[in-house]
Amino acid sequence: MTKNAGALLSECVDFFMPYIAAAKITGEARRDLDVKLAGEWFARMLFSLFSLPSSTFEIGDPSVVRAFVGGHIVNGFR
User: Fold this and answer.
1) Are 43 and 37 in contact (CB under 8 A)?
2) What would the DSSP string read from start to end of 26-53?
3) Which residues contact 17 (CB under 8 A, 6 or more apart)?
4) pTM of model > 0.70
5) pLDDT tens across 18-76, in order?
6) Secondary element (H or E) of residue 65
7) Do 49 and 1 touch, CB atoms closer than 8 A?
8) Domain count, the chain
9) Which structural domain, as residue segments, surrounds residue 56?
10) Are 26 and 3 in contact (CB under 8 A)?
11) Which of 30, 32, 40, 78 is the most buried (most CB within 10 A)?
């Protein structure tokens, strides 16, 4: 994951930015949120979820991961 990691991160940020911008418009994300920085933060959190095991929750259970992402990552945008 480290080979071309900068390019991968940049592509992920570019992918997430329209979704985060739309969330600002609908009120799902706070109005003062920096879309590009939030996109990078979100991508970095997802990379961490994909590459590191969890010691506190079942990473193999989609409903548990959904709750974790919703409760921690998404709430970071509010």
Assistant:
1) no
2) HTSS-TT--HHHHHHHHHHHHHHHHHS-
3) 35, 36, 39
4) yes
5) 999 999 999 999 999 999 999 999 999 888 888 888 888 888 899 998 898 888 777 77
6) helix 62-68
7) no
8) 1
9) 5-77
10) no
11) 40
